[in-house]
TrEMBL record:
One of its GO terms (molecular function) is pyridoxal phosphate binding. NCBIfam families: PRK09257.1 (NF006719). Keywords: Aminotransferase, Pyridoxal phosphate, Transferase. One of its GO terms (biological process) is aspartate biosynthetic process. This is Aspartate aminotransferase. GO terms for cellular component: cytosol. Homodimer.
Amino acid sequence: KFSKLEAEALDPIIATMARYAADPNPNKMDVSIGVYKAADGSSFMFPSVKMAKEIYNKVEPGHNYTTMSGLPEFIPVAQQTVFGDKIAGEGKLATIQTISGTGSLHMAMLILRSAGYTNFAVGTPAWSNYIPMAQHIGCTTSTYKYYDEETKTIDFESVVCAIEEASPKTVFILQTCCHNPTGADLSKNQWKTIRDLTINKDCMVLFDIAYQGFASGDKDEDAWPIRYFYEAGMEFVVCQSFSKNLGLYGERAGALHVVVQDKDSLPIVHSNMVKNFREECSFGPAYGARIVSTVGSTPEIKKVWDQDVAGVAERMVTMRRRILDTLTKLETPGKWDHVIRQTGLFWFSGLTKEQTERMISEYHIYLTQNGRVNVAGLNDANLDQFCKALDAVVRS
Ligand code: PLP
Ligand code: TYF
């Protein structure tokens, strides 16, 4: 009965990780999947999360169901994190808890499809799951060039052209900060242009915010584009993840926010979001949401979280600077300053597919197939090894 099914390929990033796991070389290095690692290479528990867990362990919360829009005390914390206290208090946000950022994207696509928005425009290169996820629910997709390999910057002309020429009811999936995989973020002026172009157009903006705080070190600053669109009285959606900025990868804590300007419509939109979640997941999961809500609603822990995130951003800036300094010292052929121009965890190195394959097979350094390097995987102990390998593959 099941023998008609055909095998499906692994996600390319997961395939790279599997190769890494199978490599017996003791000096192998993982700079593939987007997970933050501490300066000593160990996996990192945010001090704020540790504090929240201590509270959690003292106050027995029980194991009852939450609600179908999630853990009630999680919702305002999720809203305040993205929108700030003022906007969160204005009553224009329909929010549900979701199965992290991916679950949020899925719920966003469902509610947008219900509202008639069935084409998803994705700038390339992009996070590998957007297109399959939209197609999975029967929506169409279109692509446009986001990043220019030559200049190693955003091809903003192409972004503008895609918006101007978009068919009605197109959804633009835009990453708010720390673009995955390119590390190239839109400037404030570019966001202004995008707002001007979309404000009176029959299209929709979906903000994907999976790394809030990792670009500037300040969560409020990184959420600026979202608040800026809100100020113009626009309706749009935000997909929020706490996987990265609280290090809660496995807990699957996230939220979907829909900005609804008409107060009468808001409960209707919310009821649709809850229905969608109910039919697929029923009740929201409790554990990660409890940690998030404890961090966000306990002032002294919230301050620690601010410092945690600032520390991550600072370490990424330092490592990027050191990569550039080391390559400069090695006189590695080519221009490498994009490493310090890009933000967040990812450096889109520009190594070709063949060079990337050599990094893996000859030097046991596992970057993703598109040449993306997780900067957080580099540290004092392996930075030189990484740069020397890169230098060698570029030279020959
Ligand atoms: N969006 C982007 C740009 C990502 O890089 C990721 C993955 O890390 C996600 C969304 C989804 O993340 P998660 O489902 O782990 O919260
Ligand atoms: O791009 C990354 O590394 C993260 C984690 O199918 C990830 O976004 C990787 C692959 C995938 C889902 C998430």
